[in-house]
Amino acid sequence: MVSVPVSRLDTLAEKNTPQALDYAQHHLFIDTSRTSTHCTQLKNWQPSQWDHQAVQSSLKAINNHFQPQKVTVESFPTHFITLRKYQNEWILYDRCDGMDRRLELRDTAVVFYGPLESYGASIEKVLVQSGQTLALQIKLHPNAEPQSRQLKITQLESFVYNIMLYELPFGQMRYATVPEAIDQFDLLVNHCPTQKVIEFDDFDPL
Question: Is this model's pTM higher than 0.90 or not?
Answer without folding.
Answer: no
